[in-house]
Each structure stands twice: as C-alpha cells, then as structure tokens.
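User: Now give one protein:

AI:
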Amino acid sequence: MVEWVRRLAAGTRRVASVCVGAHLLAGAGLLDGKRATTHWSTARQLAADHPAVEVDADPIFIREGDVWTGAGLSACLDLALALVADDFGEAVALRVARQLVVYLKRPSGQSQFSVSVEPISTTRRIEDLRHYITRHIADTLTVDDLAAHAHVSARQLTRIFKTELGTTPAAYLESARVEVARHRLETTDDTLDRIASTCGFNTTDTLTRAFRRTLDTTPAAYRNRFRVR
C-alpha cells in the first residue's frame, strides 16, 4: 500500500489525507520535512514513528505545498471545500457549501477541539472549576484565582489540569474565553471592544492575540466568515 501511494503521488499534482491517512503518507515519505496533522489521538504515534514530520495535532487541516493533511473525519468536508476553492475559487466553494448547508469552511488553523464539547472531566474538582470559569468569564481571572477556588496551590492545579484535560489552567482559560467570543462574533453585532470586555480579554489586542494563537485567524476575519445572517 505504501509503495502504491508513493508511485501514485509521483504522477499527481497534489496529495491529501484525512484522519489517520496521514500515517500512510508519512510511511511513503511524502511528509518528510513538512508540517502535518492527523486525528489528535494518533498524533503522538505519528511523531514517534516519523521524526522527520512536524506533527501539529491542533489544526483541522494543513496545506504544505502540494500535500494536504486533515484531522478527524469531520475535517474532511473542510478539506474538500478548501480543495474546491483552490481549484475553482472561493465563489464556487461558497456555492458548494451553501448546497451542502454548511459554512464555507473553517479556517485551516482552527482547533480540532471546542471547549463547549470537550468530554466532561471525571473529577468533581475540575467540573466545578469549569463551571466557575463559565460563570466568571468576564472577570480578570488568574491561575492563582482558580487555585484558590479549588483550594490547591497553583502548581497542584497545573498538575491536575494536565492530567485531566491535557492542558494548563492558563491555556484552558484562554480557550474558554475564545469559545465565548466566537459565539458572540457569530450571533451578535457587538463591537470587538465589547466582546473583549465581556469575555475577560480587557482589550481587543489581547482578544486578537488569543484568536491568532487558538484559531490562526483574527476576530474580524472570523466574524466575516461565520456570522449568522
């Protein structure tokens, strides 16, 4: 199979994979020296098996020249629309998306994960903190504030978050704020200043930096693409 993929790729102008298909491309040497993504649950294995590949588990899809890789199966539609846009332009891709009753596409850098749909933690302490963050999303929360609420030290809290959610308290807090900001950008006409304030970012610059880190786009660009009309 790997040899067949290698031969086929030599005669095509581009190659694409979705989900764990990236492992096959990597095995054929098509991802060497390139950045690639795959389903988050197999990203670590892909990196271990193919050290020449720069594995990024977060984006829904990545384009590296003539090689495209997509994340989970739900990302295949985003990738397909991106390919349509690459071949025929954004206008045609938009018509296809409308026919499918979906948004044109999510930005390629948009995370595979959404805070609002992450699995519920099995520990009551983390679950309580998640609700606490949601209730106080507009406040200037810090990791020390969260630790105090959970009655643990900041170091203990970081260890708990990494064990339970695979991330740090600060990163989770920022992602939660971005999630709320995304919803407001999609469903309201609020100014960026107001959205930044109500989501705990304080300034639009802070909001923009968080969006770039999390979604690889800006709030204004996100609203233009995803605003519910």
